[in-house]
Amino acid sequence: MAPPLQVMSYNPIAESTTRFLASLDTDTRERAEQEMLRDSVRAEGVEMSLADEINLGKAMMCIAGADGLSREELTGLKYLLIISGVPPVVQDHILGFDASTTRVDDVAALFPHASRKACYVLSGTTTVAALDGLSAEERDFAVELGANLGLPPTLVVLLLAEAKATALAMQEGNQRMVAELVRMREALYDFAFEAPVEGALNQA
Q1: CA–CA separation, 188 vs 129, rounded Å?
Q2: In angstroms, rounded to a whole number, what is the distance separating the alpha carbons of residues 28 and 22?
Q3: Domains in the chain: ranges and CATH
């Protein structure tokens, strides 16, 4: 007897991203991908496709919007989209996304679990949410997201603490501190997944 068919649950983030990318003509999509690769600044060892960047931007809106999207969070989200190399036409799509119906498992389903990318997603989304202070609703969402992404509880706590510190440094315009915290973030990724850290002590 054939196994029963599995019905895939509807994911509003993935569905809207798929529709948006399908609506772009070939030249526009290729140009967007090239701009992202050229202009992006992200954690070492984390590869992000155009669809990944779009989904991450929407995930940021999900967590930050858990208690209502503030002006500080919106400004921070726009800034992170710019430094990720996301072109304006894609930024507009992300910022127009209605995150009110999304759930934690919608976000977690978009990215590989127990991975550097999972850490990167949790760090980035929580940093934006913390730009106006991390509310109880936002923290609960972030903790649940970390668990659903297959990250150990201790690592989740560390990444949330780092994200809050990074958000504070961004608020104060302290770029040197932001840079140091980003290095610490990457060290946490290395430690969690036993990546080679050859030469790390020379950079400390």
Answers
A1: 20
A2: 11
A3: 46-203 (1.10.3680)
What is the pTM (predicted TM-score) of this model? 0.87
Helical ranges in the chain per DSSP H: 12-23, 26-39, 50-64, 71-83, 88-95, 104-108, 116-129, 136-148, 153-171, 175-193, 200-203
- Could you read off the pLDDT of 20-56 as tens digits, one per residue? 999 999 999 999 898 887 766 566 668 889 999 999 9
- What are the structure tokens assigned to 175, written together? 């770029």
Residue 113: name the closest of 157, 145, 140 by CA. Answer: 145
105: tokens are 């498992």
Report the first-to-last Cα separation within the chain, whole angstroms.
60
Q: What is the average per-residue pLDDT within 89-101?
A: 95
